Amino acid sequence: QVHLVESGGGVVQPGNSLRLSCAASGFTFSDYGMYWVRQAPGKGLEWVALTWYDGSNEHYADSVKGRFTISRDNSKNTLYLQMNSLRAEDTAVYYCARGITYTYGPFDYWGQGTLVTVSS
Amino acid sequence: DIQMTQSPSSLSASVGDRVTITCRASQDISSFLAWYQQKPGKVPNLLIYAASTLQSGVPSRFSGSGSGTDFTLTISSLQPEDVATYYCQKYNSASLTFGGGTKVEIK
Known about the structure:
The complex is a heterodimer of chains A (120) and B (107).
Chain A: E1 3-7, E2 10-12, E3 18-25, E4 34-39, E5 45-51, E6 58-60, E7 68-73, E8 78-83, E9 92-99, E10 107-110, E11 114-118
Parallel strand pairs in A: 2-11
Antiparallel strand pairs in A: 1-3, 3-8, 4-5, 4-9, 5-6, 7-8, 9-10, 9-11
Chain B: E1 4-7, E2 10-13, E3 19-25, E4 33-38, E5 45-49, E6 53-54, E7 62-67, E8 70-75, E9 84-90, E10 102-106
Parallel strand pairs in B: 2-10
Antiparallel strand pairs in B: 1-3, 3-8, 4-5, 4-9, 5-6, 7-8, 9-10
């Protein structure tokens, strides 16, 4: 059974950094593209970042480009999101999600999410 | 960047009604369109991908259609458990934009 478990969220001051992790199990992690998606309180879904199955390709939403970095460790079945220069508008629940293919694709499994609050 | 516009933003319908939600892309995205359902307080769930392919386990009252720029999600007979917000998403390129969502309630 596919499981995605995010961790690393919390309260952080503007300008500071945070690293999120997503532990994957129940499938061959290195066969799938992986994604981060966020949802601000009471708002809609926003795709944040993607990495191909082998980490060879990464893409970011314009809102986080240059501040966030997605990475993966296929030997540890873990996805990461390094978030630097955090802003109040980055406050959201952050979900990791699995794509249905090894590159771009919709998301067939989601974690439960981890809340990031950026506040002084 | 391609924008995804959903309409309506919310709707209220009776149990058993046929419900249609529209998603429009600002440029041609072929059939690279997915629909998700997010129930209150829950994680999003993939309903349809490739514009019209039903994800495994999704009830057959859900269907999708369209290609190019105009897409629809149809619930053939609305059930109480369908109360949720529905999102479309394009995935034809590295920018996987979501629509703004349509909140569906029971009248």
